[in-house]
Amino acid sequence: MRALLNLDEARSAPLMKGPYISLSRPFREGAKVADMVAEGLLHPLMENLIPYAHLFGHQKTAIRNIVAGKSVLISTGTGSGKTECFLYPIISHCLKLRDGNGPAGISAVIVYPMNALAEDQLARIQVLRELTMGVKQRIGLEP
């Protein structure tokens, strides 16, 4: 029986030969989370909830625009924190409503186009749910 993948053959294939060049550069560093809190763009608790001292540049720009009520389109690489671009302002807004005894009701609905993506993001949202005590959330996958 022949193996489906022969590493010696794969290494000699034209696509596997070097030199290897990576065109990926690090994402541009943005504002400090503490500065975004000081400017009133994020709720003070966000400084404890966000696990990084700095946001990426595109996150800073997105959050500023979202807080200003502008429409935002985020197009950047995998692992660049696209979810945080919209999730941090949503959580911050909910915390501000909680502090100001805002009206009861739905503040945000997050809809993912595929269950696989929703399940991937679910763990991240649940961690934040536990950290944002006092903000009621319903998280679930609906068909």
Class by SSE composition:
mainly alpha
Biggest sheet, open or closed, and with what strands and sense? 2 strands, antiparallel
H-E order: HEHHEHHH
Radius of gyration, in Å, reads 20 Å
Features:
two-stranded antiparallel sheet, elongated, 6 helices, 143 residues, 43% helix, 5% strand, mainly alpha
In short:
This protein is mainly alpha-helical. It contains six helices and two strands, in the order αβααβααα.
Write structural notes for this entry.
Helices cover 43% and strands 5% of the residues. The chain has 143 residues and is mainly alpha-helical. The protein has one domain (28-131). The radius of gyration is 20 Å and the shape is elongated.
Give the arrangement of secondary structure elements.
Blueprint: H1 7-12, E1 29-32, H2 33-38, H3 46-49, E2 54-56, H4 57-67, H5 82-99, H6 115-131
Antiparallel strand pairs: 1-2
